[in-house]
Design a protein that fits this description.
This protein has two domains: 130 residues, NAD(P)-binding Rossmann-like Domain (Rossmann fold, 3-Layer(aba) Sandwich); 183 residues, Rossmann fold, CATH 3.40.50. 39% of the residues lie in helices and 14% in strands. The protein contains 14 helices and twelve strands. The strands form two sheets. It has a seven-stranded parallel β-sheet with strand order 8-7-6-9-10-11-12, sandwiched between helices. Strands 2-1-3-4-5 form a five-stranded parallel β-sheet, with helices on both faces. Helix 1 runs parallel beside helix 13 and helix 5 packs across helix 7. The structure holds 2-keto-D-gluconic acid (8YV). 2-keto-D-gluconic acid binds next to loops. The site of 2-keto-D-gluconic acid has 8 residues, from loops.
Length: 326
Amino acid sequence: MKPRILVARAVFPQVLTLLAQHFDVTANQDDALWSSAELIQQLQGKQGVFTTGSERISQELLAACPDLKICANMAVGFNNFDLDAMTAAGVLGTNTPDVLTETTADFGFALMMATARRMAESEHFLRAGLWNRWRYDMFAGAEVHGSTLGILGMGRIGQGIARRGAFGFGMNVIYHNRSRLDAATEAACGASYVSKQDLLQRSDHLVLVLPYSPEAHHVIGATELAQMKPTASLVNIARGGIVDDAALAIALKQGTIAAAGLDVFEGEPKVHPDLLSVPNVVLTPHIASATIPTRLAMAQLAADNLIGFLVHGKAVTPLNPQVVSA
Ligand code: 8YV
């Protein structure tokens, strides 16, 4: 008998076809959004689940789904997993690193440029029929080339953004991270390590790429925003909750910083109403990894993790491999 799995959200049909070769698959191609009680119900008798960042795997869910052996997230971030509870319950978690690095770095850089050069704000002005003449300072933004790019969180995606800035745009790239990179990696991405305070004070464009954790909650709030340059822009492609969105809306209104670009939000898909009414912010709906080849590679890797583990006993990108060796 084939193992039974749940694919919790709509996914590329070819990935479902691949999964169906190995598993008895329950799919959700209508992309219904289930409550945790509904997810628990759908998971009864399932050994594996294909999740996205939107499905929370909690201790309660694990306790109610004793057959579950693996949760394969189609995301590099896994803050929707209670990984400690999964390890304690003997459930493997997997994510999708590497396949989205360059695509996400492209987007982070694009969002930084759109924010600095006021692309969304000026486009709205044009669409509203307000453009009736050229003016010397109309939507004058901040310089990108030659300016200082700050990166908070220097993992694979942060390094990709650093390379783009240093070698593509002649930017002075500084970063802060929990641990400093080795000299060769710093040189390969053209970045210098600074304290968090220096990063806040010196960046013309500050891009956040750190993973979410309770320690990272509101790492950028009113106090940090007050340390930034009034001409600076802030970009968050990491996770909602890393920035205090209410404090950011106030900072944007008051001119504490010049502009922001946000792809992730606290409590998304809800967006803080004050962010919707300030003009100097570019807002996108969590699409940093969204190209078809990359999303397909992510879905395929999540599927390979399910097949690798449930069929061959070895996942490709496990998060808590100690579960398997235990
Ligand atoms: C996903 C992401 O699209 O990989 C991540 O961590 O944030 C995005 O690439 C999103 O989490 C849906 O799974």
